[in-house]
Write a structure and sequence with these properties.
Blueprint lengths: L2 H10 L7 E4 L1 H7 L8 E5 L1 H10 L3 E6 L2 E6 L3 E4 L9 E3 L2 E3 L2 H11 L5 H14 L3 H23 L4 H12 L1 H13 L5 H11 L12 H19 L3 H12 L2
Parallel strand pairs: 2-5
Antiparallel strand pairs: 1-2, 3-4, 4-5, 6-7
Helix pairs in contact: 4-5, 6-7, 6-10, 7-8, 8-10, 9-10
């Protein structure tokens, strides 16, 4: 199940989000760290556990450390195990484990099947903590290449014409404008905004004289976001943002 399918399944079961936390691989999918998961694991309080047992046709799966795990349709796995153990964070109005919490849990369980997830989380955390200017360096190249491909695919232009048209997208002024628009229209996720803000607040030693420091910082923020998404292999999200920018 991808993110959309996980959310649809949660809505299908009409679960009360106040009484459980999504843990494991499903949390990674909702966070965008992992593409798909096979099932949804939730930790819930005893009252809600009893409610689900009465409300749905549940199947007993197994018992771990004295905690019974039940299944609904072999997709939703629920147990009181781990409920109250994690602070979590809100995604789409659901409380999910943070990447660090998932990492700690999977490292503690030390299961072969979790090795790939652990690598994905470590890569995510590494990219998240990377220097903002390094992210912007990668993002600048990714952003400009996308614009060049976009303009070439629109028609046969002379190189000078392509360069002139590219300015409408790749200049600091243009990037600043597009970033402002995305923020104003709530197009970016909370995590993406954090990347932008961190880059925007980064100390700048120098900037082009014809560009204001505010405009330059906003452009750097957008480039850092694209760089972060590129290093996180989130090509689909890059395409969504770039299509938003070019108006497709």
């Amino acid at each position: 199940m991808n993110k959309e399918e996980v959310l649809n399944k949660l809505k299908e079961y009409k679960l009360d989000s106040k009484n459980f936390i999504i843990i494991g691989s499903a949390a990674l999918v909702l966070k965008g760290i992992k593409e798909t998961c096979q099932n949804i694991d939730i930790a819930l309080n005893k009252e809600y556990n009893d409610y689900l047992l009465k409300q749905y046709k549940c199947k007993f799966e197994k018992e771990i450390d004295g905690y019974k795990i039940y299944l609904i349709d072999d997709i939703l796995h629920f147990s009181t195990h781990y409920y109250g153990c994690f602070k979590g964070e809100k995604i789409e109005n659901y409380l999910i484990q943070t990447p660090n919490e998932v990492l700690k849990l999977k490292q503690t369980l030390n299961r072969k099947k979790d090795e790939e997830d652990i690598k994905l989380i470590l890569n995510y955390l590494n990219n998240l903590n990377m220097n903002s200017l390094a992210l912007a360096y990668i993002g600048d190249a990714t952003y400009e290449l996308y614009i060049r491909k976009y303009l070439v695919n629109k028609g046969n232009y002379k190189v000078k014409d392509l360069a002139d048209k590219a300015i409408n997208y790749v200049s600091a002024k243009a990037q600043s404008k597009y970033l402002d628009k995305m923020i104003e229209e709530n197009y970016l996720t909370k995590e993406e905004l954090e990347i932008v803000k961190r880059a925007r607040n980064h100390k700048v030693l120098s900037h082009p004289k014809k560009t204001s420091i505010i405009t330059y910082k906003k452009a750097t923020g957008l480039e850092a976001l694209i760089g972060y998404l590129e290093l996180s292999n989130k090509q689909q999200r890059i395409n969504q943002i770039m299509k938003y920018i070019v108006g497709d």
